[in-house]
Amino acid sequence: MRRLFGSVRARATLGASLVVALALVAAGAAVLISLRVNLTGQADSRAASAAREVASQIVSGRPYADLDLPDGEDSPVQIVDENGRLVAASEDLERISGTGSDEVKPGSAAGKPSGDDDEGEREGKGKGGDSAADSESGSDSDSESGSDSGSGSDDAEISDDTEYSDGSATVDGESADYRFAAVEVGTESKGDLKVYAGGSLSDERSAVSTALTSMLVGFPLLLAVVAGTTWLVTRRALRPVAAITGEMSAITASQDLGRRVPEPDTHDEIARLARTTNETLTALQTSVERQRRFVADASHELRSPIASLRTQLEVGAAHPELLDVDGAVEDTVRLQELAADLLLLARLDAGEKPGGARVELAAFVREELSQRTRDRVDVRTDLTSLEVTGSRGQLARVLGNLLNNAQRHAHSRITVTTRTEGAWAVLEVSDDGSGVPVGERERIFERFVRLDDARSRDDGGAGLGLAIARDVAVRHGGALVVREAPSGGALFELRLPLPQSSAE
Question: What pLDDT is attached to residue 125?
């Protein structure tokens, strides 16, 4: 189970299904509530209309027996007096609840309307079902004013308020739920009456049941469609990821950094992932190839002084009088310098920070020049006192490499100058040699590159000095470039940022 839901496809399908399920449940509940409220409102309207119709007949002075009551199954009716006695009800009403009285037949104490009693009773049953006359008003008012079927001269009034309640009724053996509307009627002859009329809720029950059944059947089907669609769409969308994963696994197994992952013809996140992965592979391949070349070149450069030194030592061991001590010392020095260069390059590649020591350039240049006792060409200086921030040891290596390069190419003059230019401290080393061709002025800063390939290795160096000098300059926030010197040779310009206080 954990492995199944560890898949992005499975989690996306589950998440989409849950969201849709919640949305469907909320929408279904809203629809059912709205449908029930709407249909209940219609039942209230029917019940209120029926109650007010009956109330209007009472106000007109019509006797209970002559009331034209609605059909009991459509709208059961009760008329209750102010004492809670049932005075009239729908025909065939067998049971009722939710109204002012549970009685379904008028009380025996109710009076009868004037005229022929049997005929009136039969007429009442035929038109309005069971009915009863008000017993108290029947004995007095009939003798004085004739009967309760007068001309409607009573000062009767129908209340504007309507009360609603839920209930049920059984009419002619059929039971159903109803919404009952209660309307009050005030008369002088009959007192205060309350008319109850029901509106059937069968349509509401049927519609809600049908809608609920449809939802119970349709919602699972819709969820299945959503889940299936999400599964297929996610699988199609993640197909390039599977291809990328497979290719990366193959690259790891074969260690072939020349291979690339497939890039889909889209503009989405997966396409950007594939492009970024290929860019990373390209950078990794470049780095690995550069490292391999570095190791190969370093081994090649180390082989020469080591072989020379070994040869001299072996000759000296066999023939002490032939031992070239000076040559052995030079080879040892070259070997020491090359090892130091390789170590510094390794530290620079590892991201060694330059440090934050203050270095006064004029004093720094004088001190470094004073330690160079074996230079072939004298060095002139034109120094301005200024400070920079960085690693004194790394800056000493830069100056030493620039001077070594100038010593190899100068004819008779080397000049070192320091000056400020805006927010920069500038150190220049120039010579009067043959200079650097324009097309080669960037290439000379690559590692193990020498333009004087025809020159012997003893004279030409390993081709690491300028590469180290530029790396150090960049890591100090500066730059190292080469231009033509006024004397026609090469002019190397080192730019370093002045400290903030000095720049201001």
Answer: 38
At 60 the pLDDT is 87
Fold of 353-503: Heat Shock Protein 90 (3.30.565)
Detail the DSSP E strand segments found in 320-404: 357-360, 379-382, 387-390
Give dist(CA 214, CA 218) in Å, integer: 6
Q: Which two tokens stand for residue 440?
A: 């080669």
In whole angstroms, what is the distance from residue 248 CA to residue 280 CA?
Answer: 12
Phi and psi of 60, rounded to 5°?
Answer: -70, -10
Q: How many CA atoms lie within 13 A of 234 on its CB side?
A: 16
Q: What is the pLDDT of residue 342?
A: 82
Query: What amino acid is encoded at 282 in this protein?
Result: T
Domain ranges of the chain: 1-254, 257-352, 353-503
CB 424 within 8 A of CB 473: no
Task: Provide the pLDDT for residue 461.
Answer: 60
CATH code given to domain 257-352: 1.10.287.130
Q: Give all strands (DSSP E) within 98-227, no chain letters.
A: 157-158, 163-171, 174-187, 191-200
Name the least confident of 180-189, 279-288, 295-304. Answer: 295-304
Q: What kind and span of H or E run contains 11?
A: helix 8-59
pLDDT reported for residue 29: 92
Helix (H) or strand (E) holding 7: none
Helix or strand (DSSP H, E) at 426 = strand 424-431
The chain-wide mean pLDDT, for the chain, equals 82
Positions of E strands within 44-172: 77-81, 86-89, 93-97, 157-158, 163-171
Mean pLDDT over 213-234 rounds to 90
pLDDT at 453: 46
Instruction: State the Cα–Cα distance between residues 125 and 189, nearest whole angstrom.
Output: 23
Of 476, 468, 480, 465, nearest to 353 by C-alpha is: 476
Give the pLDDT confidence of 33-48 residue by residue, as tens digits: 998 899 889 999 999 9
Location of structure tokens 């240049």: 365
Q: How far is the C-alpha of 476 from the C-alpha of 276, rounded, in Å?
A: 30
Residue 3 has what pLDDT? 53
Q: In this structure, are strands 77-81 and 424-431 parallel, antiparallel, or unpaired? A: unpaired
Is the separation of the CB atoms in 164 and 44 below 8 Å? Answer: yes
Distances (CA, A) of 369 to 378, 398, 417, 483: 10, 13, 13, 23
Residue 425 near residue 388 (C-beta atoms within 8 A): yes
Residue 58 near residue 208, CB atoms below 8 Å:
no
